[in-house]
Amino acid sequence: MKRKLSIKHSMIVSIARKEFLHIIHDPRTLTILFLMPILQLTMFGYALNLEIQRVDMAVVDYANSTGSREIVEQFNGSKFFHLLPYEGELDQVDQMFKARRAKVVMIIPYDFDRQLLRDRQIPLQFIIDASDANAATLIRNYCSQVVNDFNQVHNQKLPLPFDLRPTIFFNPDMKSTYFFVPGLIALLLIMISALLTSITITREKETGTMEQILVSPVRPYQIILGKVIPYVLLGLLIAAVILLIGIFLFKVPFIGSLPLLTLLTLLYIVTALSLGLMISTIAKTQQVAMMIALVATLLPTFMLSGFIFPIPSMPIVLQYISYIIPARFYLLIARGIILKGSTFYNLLAPTLILLLMSVILITVAVRRFSLNLEK
Amino acid sequence: MRRILFMMRKEFLQIFRDPPMIGIIFMVPLVQLFVLAYAITTDVKHIKLTIMDFDKSYVSRQIEDAFSHTERFDVVSYTSDVRVIDQQMRAWETQMALVIPANFSRDLRRGLNPQIQVVVDGVDGNSAGVALGYAQQILADYGLSWATSPRHFLVARDMHLVTMWPRMWYNPNLDSKEYMVPGIVVILLTIIPMMLSAMSLVKEKEIGTLEQLMVTPLRKHQLLLGKLIPFLILSYFELALVMAFAIVVFQISMIGSYTLLAALSLLYLFTTIGLGIFVSTFTGSQQQAMFFSWFFMVFMLLMSGFFIPIENMPKSLQALTYLNPMRYFMYIIRDIFEKGSSIRFLWRDVIPMTAFGLIIISSGVIKFRKRIS
Asked: How far apart are CA B182 and CA B164, in angstroms?
């Protein structure tokens, strides 16, 4: 009995070793696997900024008076706006937008000062290039802030009757890097676990080596385990690298419990691996496996998991779809533990969902895999 | 010429022999179109809000109503214990808490400037910033209406308020699809040609048929043309399909010239197919080819302004984006779609894009020829 057991073990170990050698023998892929997250982390850390820094604003000042200069000065003083004089006729705004010289044009009417003294409401026209709707909304909000400030200065009696004191928990500087480190771990683990495993198994099918393994006395689950273990280790290693870079280079605070994170990360890896296994039972060639993996795992993980874009803002159909994406729940777990110090009890719901997903996926994948083998 | 046609026929046969692949080539774009068009919004809605009302007055209830009556905020719970908020945030049950102190309305009437506290979960920095902005806006509006109501100290007659009249050009409904869908066209014209050409060239290497092709009387440029023209044709099909979907299903308005778009797409395809050839010269297996194409893809995408506006990046990264051919095409397509820009306004982008295309495709071809001889 004991001998049998050890044979089983040695089978798994030798398949794992073969797979491991396979990985090692392809240093280019390995380099990319390590380089990709590091570069992405750097880029997300520095580049991903959805707040606009500088808006080019053209000013048409028909009044050229004290009041108009004051409001122009108000815009000039705001760090968001970069003012440029407007040349030419008003009907050339279209050309200005097309040449991308300005994003917004402010038009001050010639009797601005008189209106300022006389009227209760003084309309001020802003033409905004709304081709990028998100940016246009932000620009409008910035303009309205500056206009409000101007109103405050001009109406001494307008102080707000109460104060607002914002308190920011967990990430007081609101740094986006903090948010992306856990996200990248989720993305990368899916990539390695689902994509790589599905490709390596279909490769064996494509090159015909799967039959060779099949005529040997190895059992299906041994093949699966042997092929999967090296990728689990690789995944954990890369996750650790990302985490270390995040902590030491980007100063991401790690507040929670490391054992808890490791445990739940393993759960996520298992879910992702069974997804990869599923794909390999559907696809016959590497190209197909890759394309399915791309559409079924990477794209939704990137777009629909809440990695960058907030789920509650999406249309309801996409919100429903997001419920079947493992990364959605892993992100709650990883971000919760790393950034907020959430406990297991806090994260019970996402953990249970992930567990349920992996149980279903494993059952279906293993069954399909053995069926495929028998054929 | 006939040889090239034969080679092209072989290539088409090979593509169409693989039905799942065909499905994927045409399904992937549509799935992407659907997901990307709707998922990418930096708008923040339905922020989960917890209310801590220690005042329990008419005024505090009015403030709560002001929050619950917008789709920006969803009031999820009421509590009177700060520790509850901390726990709720750790479990992702709430994102923001509004704390109205005891005696708020009394202090307000006496002009004592009481303080409202807004606690926000800062983990998602972008959303937190936006959420705070909304809260500020709502409270400022309420404060203004409270102060200017006839019973209080300000009299509306004395006020001279400048109000904004914003006019939104090109996209008056502020529909982000109008901006994202043209961007997706660019992504598709990048992924599909690059990956397909790289993987198809590498596949011949991997299974050894490249040598067989080389001992035939086919010349090297014939071989390459015969392999790549089918992908060019396929990419154009893809473009037509996606454009049709964008215009018919997503109701995207395309006000520019179709001829200009088709012509500039061809220039851009030089770049992406060239990159595909390039990748195939230094990779040995389909897996490697896929990873390298993917690698290029991710960086081109991030640095293209597709969803991270280039103007928001630090200066050094902005300079780096000039090396990215996708950046130029992203501007071109979006401007043609939305603003109907003519070539007169697009020269700035067309010239560098063409230069990149020519450099990339010729160096790819040169490397490939060296490699197989």
From this structure: 30
What is the model's pTM? 0.79
Both A76 and A98 in one domain: the answer is yes
Scanning every residue of chain B, which has its alpha carbon at the shortest distance from the alpha carbon of A292?
Answer: B24
Q: Are A24 and A63 part of one and the same domain?
A: no
Q: Quick check: is A162 in a domain?
A: no
A71 assigned to some structural domain: yes
* Residue after which a domain boundary falls, among A150, A183, A203: A150
Question: How many independent structural domains does chain A possess?
Answer: 2
The tens-digit pLDDT sequence of chain B (373 residues) is: 777 787 788 778 877 777 666 776 777 778 778 777 777 766 788 899 999 999 999 989 999 999 988 888 999 999 888 888 888 888 889 999 999 999 998 888 887 888 899 999 988 877 888 888 888 888 888 887 887 776 665 555 567 778 788 888 888 887 878 888 898 889 888 888 888 888 888 888 877 777 777 777 777 777 778 888 888 888 888 889 888 988 888 888 898 999 999 999 999 998 999 999 888 888 888 778 877 887 788 888 888 888 778 887 888 888 889 999 999 999 999 999 988 888 888 999 999 999 999 999 888 888 887 766 6
Long-range contacts of B310-316 (CB under 8 A, 24+ apart): B311/A52, B311/A53, B311/A54, B312/A47, B312/A49, B312/A50, B312/A51, B312/A52, B312/A53, B313/A46, B313/A47, B313/A49, B314/A46, B314/A47
- For A272, the domain range is 2-48+174-374
Residues A225 and A179 grouped into a single domain:
yes
Angle between the N-to-C axes of helices A348-374 and A258-282, in degrees from 0 to 180, rounded to the nearest 10? 30
A164 located within any domain: no
Contact list, A129 vs chain B (CB under 8 Å): 169-170
Using DSSP's 3-state secondary structure scheme, residue A276 falls into helix
Kindly state whether residues A134 and A266 are assigned to the same domain.
Answer: no
Instruction: For residues A27 and A109, state if they share a domain.
Output: no
Q: Are residues A238 and A100 part of one domain?
A: no
A197 lies in the same domain as A64: no
Residue A299 is assigned to a structural domain of this protein: yes
- Chain B residues with CB under 8 Å of A167 CB are 117-120
Separation CA B226–CA B206 (nearest Å): 19
**Which chain B residues are within 8 Å of A123, Cβ to Cβ?**
163, 165
C-beta atoms of A169 and B341 within 8 A: no
A174 phi and psi, to 5 degrees? 50, 50
How far B133 CA sits from the closest chain A CA (Å)? 9
Chain A residues with CB under 8 Å of B21 CB are: 285, 287-288, 291
- Distance, in Å, from the CA atom of B9 to the CA atom of A123, rounded to the nearest integer, reads 66
Same domain? A283 vs A309: yes
Candidates A30, A127, A131: best to mutate against B (most CBs of B within 10 A) is A131
In this complex, how many residue pairs, one in chain A and one in chain B, have their CB atoms less than 8 Å apart?
332
